[in-house]
């Protein structure tokens, strides 16, 4: 099925500030800021409070820029999918040109500010993240391969690496481990959504794994990624930049994640209103915040715990 849309841009912008904020995908921004902050606080070394705040703002703006560029390019897809039809561009409140200009300005501003005021390793990582999400994922992978989420998930996994680089000025194995946790979490998370939103992706002609490879293959791959995620989630404790307490918390959270994925794998009731796939999707959101929340607690105790002892 092909998607044909005709956009007539108004002479006078109808956009309000909240429309531009929506373009930035604020829910995604929250996760990006949170995981980047965890990376910053976990990294060894002092953090200048002013530069730390500037770095977080730049990372947030960079994430928002990626979201705006994604909505600009995907306006035709968004218009035919139930969960995205009311976004600013298909809804008519923001024109494609406005969204493109907005995204480009935010991209340049965030990268240059982070590079000039903090360091260019972090700035380069932010630039690559924006490019990866807007070009590699949105413009290429999303419409061409059912592995779109697997490869494209790297874009969402970079923020803790950027946060680590803000403090350390380098790319380290610890930052890569934080990247890997999000990277291996992404396929089960998004494929769970795709399993109960298959019709939307089919209508939009987006080759998500369930639509192309089938539900059985998708479930097998989700289970495989969840099995690999469990030891990865324990790696911070094994490597020594998190404590055994974190390791115990991660083991429980990842065990539940694996169990819920197994329920999806074994599910025969795919037409239920509240299916195992939907439950896994909702738990996966909680899971990532909880894993990084536990790491944040570790980082805060390491940096500031002595003040209260």
UniProtKB/TrEMBL annotation:
Topology term for the membrane: Multi-pass membrane protein
Main location as per UniProt: membrane
Pfam family, one: UbiA
Enzyme class, first EC level, given as a word: transferase
Transmembrane segments: 28-47, 53-73, 124-141, 234-259, 280-301
Catalytic reaction annotation: heme b + (2E,6E)-farnesyl diphosphate + H2O = Fe(II)-heme o + diphosphate
Keywords: Cell membrane, Heme biosynthesis, Membrane, Transferase, Transmembrane, Transmembrane helix
EC number per UniProt: 2.5.1.141
Gene Ontology molecular function terms on file: protoheme IX farnesyltransferase activity
Pathway field: Porphyrin-containing compound metabolism; heme O biosynthesis; heme O from protoheme: step 1/1
Subcellular location: Cell membrane
Purpose: Converts heme B (protoheme IX) to heme O by substitution of the vinyl group on carbon 2 of heme B porphyrin ring with a hydroxyethyl farnesyl side group.
Record family assignment: Belongs to the UbiA prenyltransferase family. Protoheme IX farnesyltransferase subfamily.
Miscellaneous comment as given in the Swiss-Prot or TrEMBL entry: Carbon 2 of the heme B porphyrin ring is defined according to the Fischer nomenclature.
Protein name stated in the entry: Protoheme IX farnesyltransferase
Organism: Pseudahrensia aquimaris
């Amino acid at each position: 099925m092909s998607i044909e849309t005709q956009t007539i841009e108004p002479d006078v912008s109808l956009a309000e500030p909240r429309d531009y904020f929506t373009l930035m995908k604020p829910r995604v921004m929250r996760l990006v800021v949170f995981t980047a902050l965890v990376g910053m606080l976990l990294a060894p070394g002092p953090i200048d409070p002013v530069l730390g705040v500037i770095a977080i703002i730049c990372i947030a703006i960079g994430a928002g820029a990626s979201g705006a560029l994604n909505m600009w390019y995907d306006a035709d897809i968004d218009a035919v999918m139930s969960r995205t039809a009311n976004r600013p561009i298909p809804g008519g409140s923001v024109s494609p040109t406005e969204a493109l200009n907005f995204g480009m300005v935010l991209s340049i501003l965030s990268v240059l500010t982070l590079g000039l005021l903090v360091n260019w390793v972090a700035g380069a990582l932010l630039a690559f993240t924006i490019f990866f999400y807007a070009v590699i994922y949105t413009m290429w992978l999303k419409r061409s391969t059912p592995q779109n989420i697997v490869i494209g998930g790297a874009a969402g996994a970079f923020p803790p690496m950027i946060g680590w680089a803000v403090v350390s000025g380098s790319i380290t194995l610890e930052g890569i481990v934080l990247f890997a946790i999000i990277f291996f979490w992404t396929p089960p998370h998004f494929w769970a959504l795709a399993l109960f939103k298959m019709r939307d992706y089919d209508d939009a002609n987006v080759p998500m794994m369930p639509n192309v490879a089938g539900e059985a293959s998708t479930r097998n791959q989700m289970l495989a990624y969840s099995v690999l995620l469990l030891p990865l989630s324990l790696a911070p404790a094994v490597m020594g930049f998190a404590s055994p307490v974190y390791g115990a918390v991660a083991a429980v959270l990842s065990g539940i994640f694996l169990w819920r994925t197994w329920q999806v794998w074994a599910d025969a009731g795919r037409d239920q209103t509240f299916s195992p796939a939907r439950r896994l999707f909702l738990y996966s959101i909680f899971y990532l915040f909880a894993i990084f929340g536990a790491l944040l607690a570790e980082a805060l105790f390491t940096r500031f715990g002595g003040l209260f002892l």
